[in-house]
Amino acid sequence: MTSAAVLRPWRTSDAPVLLEASGDPVLARQFGGARFDDEDAAAAFIATTYRFDEHARNWAVTAGDGDAQVVGSVGVTAIECAHGTAWVSYWLVPAARGRGLATRALVAAADDAFALGLHRLELGHRTNNPASCAVATRAGFRAEGIEREKLRYGDERFDVETHARLATDPGPDVRPLTIVRPAP
Ligand SMILES: CC(C)(COP(=O)(O)OP(=O)(O)OC[C@H]1O[C@@H](n2cnc3c(N)ncnc32)[C@H](O)[C@@H]1OP(=O)(O)O)[C@@H](O)C(=O)NCCC(=O)NCCS
């Protein structure tokens, strides 16, 4: 699965994958707590939130070529051109984890963002999320510090470690996923 995987923009026809993923409480956090009642709601989320435009480049990670099953997401959002910054996030369905796919997807999305002219990409993970920390670090995002009790899930608050990668930082020794860009 891993070697043939690609990044491509989300399609509303990917709604079934998102609907199933939102049933996982950990993954649901990646959608800002959005809960989808049906495929129409998931498709609407893709259309309004998993956008691909000058403000956000939300990539679906597929398990093969661009028409293969979607197994995750990597998003470059909050693109701010004045300062050349953006926020990055990622997730994979459990069956696709543990093969380096998230790291390769993140490197590909970062390469694309830097090629656009962005200078600084930021991300944050709960300090009790070592997998996300490993993905960020392997993809060349340096840890920059802890934001105390930044996130609240239920009654519990979580410290968040911020990472960032600059366009001028050395690139990681990771083979990026192939990107299938939208037709101009
Ligand atoms: C974070 C996530 C995308 C990682 O996916 P993954 O498939 O395990 O990522 P990779 O295979 O690229 O693994 C990258 C590294 O994480 C390490 N890792 C994975 N799970 C780990 C764990 N539980 N503890 C410590 N390290 C872990 C791997 O060993 C690997 O390190 P290495 O390259 O030095 O061997 C996945 O766990 C996920 O979707 N989690 C839920 C959503 C989430 O937390 N997203 C990030 C929000 S900030």
TrEMBL record:
Organism: Curtobacterium pusillum
GO terms for cellular component: cytoplasm
CDD domains: NAT_SF
Protein known as: RimJ/RimL family protein N-acetyltransferase
GO molecular function: protein N-terminal-serine acetyltransferase activity; protein-N-terminal-alanine acetyltransferase activity
Origin: domain of life: Bacteria
Lineage: Bacteria, Bacillati, Actinomycetota, Actinomycetes, Micrococcales
PANTHER family, A to Z: ACETYLTRANSFERASE (PTHR43441:SF10), RIBOSOMAL-PROTEIN-SERINE ACETYLTRANSFERASE (PTHR43441)
Gene3D superfamilies: 3.40.630.30
Domain N-acetyltransferase: 5-167
SUPFAM superfamilies: Acyl-CoA N-acyltransferases (Nat) (SSF55729)
